[in-house]
Amino acid sequence: MFLSRLHLRNYRNFAEQVVEFPPQGAALVGDNGQGKTNLLEAIYYLEIFRSFRGAPDEQLVRFGEEVFRAEARLSDGLGGDRTVSAAFDRRARKKKVALNGAEPERLGDALGQVGAVIFSPSDVEIVAGGPGGRRRFLDIVLSLAQPGYLSAVQRYRQALFQRNTLLRKGSSRALVEVWDAGLVLAGSRVIAARQRWVAARADSFAAHYERVAGGQPGRLGYAPSAPEMAEAQGEAQVQEAFRGALARAADREQRRGMTLVGPHRDDLRFTTLSADGAVLELRTYGSGGQQRTGAIALRMVEAETIHEARGRQPLILLDDVFAELDPGRSQRIIDWIETEDGGQVILTSPKPTDFHVRGDTLPRWGIRDGVILQD
Ligand SMILES: Nc1ncnc2c1ncn2[C@@H]1O[C@H](COP(=O)(O)OP(=O)(O)OP(=O)(O)O)[C@@H](O)[C@H]1O
Ligand SMILES: [Mg+2]
């Protein structure tokens, strides 16, 4: 399956745009502010039904318009086609998603149809920013790759909200505890899935980091909200550890008026080693380039995850990724794309000199003021 056609109407600065993509992909070159990121954002919107930039749907509607619509056609090259579409009405604040023209029962059923991974300059925030961004990363990847994960997150949020409301009001322990069973059940599912994913991907992350960084080591680790959860293996043990951690935190929770342990306080840890062997957090001690390398290695393991979950090469979207990297690192990312034997790649850059991916097999298109210029 590859993205063979994209149709945008009133999405950001695109009025009406139809693009036909070849199986190998395309390279888009255009000045700043012409719509390069908007185009990749629209494609990825059809993967997760929201902006990867975190923009609310209202902002995606073209200025002065009411409704945006985006539709992707995915083809297997043998005449088998599927479509995925999304529309948002700003006035009614209503989002509509369809697979082959039919609305799925739940939005969650439609996630991940495109099978894409997006690399963007803002990814560095996953490594360098606060833990919320790292949890969001985990939630998106695991929602795309694991059936049941998203609904566990939603059940957890529900229980957490109720429990926090009671704690904030200073309700009695007995009332608060009513929510503990649901919190632990849904939360342990989330924690165990995150833990398993990090454990399964840690070696691969280290290998990608080391290769892109030209030999410097990099590690990915899971940092749960309470120490007992670090030792727990599998969902049953996590449940026990979670209950223990809640019991231990009960007095503090009453004082602070909020739930203090659980997956809403999880984190990921990115580390490297200093010249004398000390473990350094990339978040606090990493250079800009090292943090960027961590984010790229993370996207690479995400690509592997999507590949396994979908059983095919993901569509790789590269938004101006070479901008802040030294030539060695850029080349090693290109090498990685070459080894992704033949999956589709759509990349953007303001500089025509940036494209050395796949020799010259990718067609080069221009983009100006929300219009794609194909020759
Ligand atoms: N809802 C909207 N309606 C119309 N135009 C919009 C909307 N949202 C953003 N834009 C316009 O889209 C343009 C930005 O597009 P985009 O972020 O895709 O640029 P870019 O080509 O990636 O540039 P850069 O090289 O700087 O990253 C801006 O000119 C902005 O005004
Ligand atoms: Mg951009």
TrEMBL record:
Keyword Kinase: no
Main location: cytoplasm
Molecular-function GO term, any one: single-stranded DNA binding
Highest taxon in the source lineage: Bacteria
InterPro entries cross-referenced by the UniProt entry: DNA-binding_RecF (IPR001238), DNA-binding_RecF_CS (IPR018078), P-loop_NTPase (IPR027417), RecF/RecN/SMC_N (IPR003395), RecF_2 (IPR042174)
Coiled coil: none
UniProtKB keywords: ATP-binding, Cytoplasm, DNA damage, DNA repair, DNA replication, DNA-binding, Nucleotide-binding, SOS response
SUPFAM superfamilies, A to Z: P-loop containing nucleoside triphosphate hydrolases
Subcellular location: Cytoplasm
Binding site for ATP: G30, D31, N32, G33, Q34, G35, K36, T37
Biological-process GO terms, alphabetical: DNA replication; DNA synthesis involved in DNA repair; double-strand break repair; SOS response
One Pfam family recorded for the sequence: SMC_N
GO cellular component: cytoplasm
Start and end residues of each RecF/RecN/SMC N-terminal domain: 2-353
Family designation: Belongs to the RecF family.
Protein role: The RecF protein is involved in DNA metabolism; it is required for DNA replication and normal SOS inducibility. RecF binds preferentially to single-stranded, linear DNA. It also seems to bind ATP.
NCBIfam families linked to this entry: recf
Protein name listed in UniProt: DNA replication and repair protein RecF
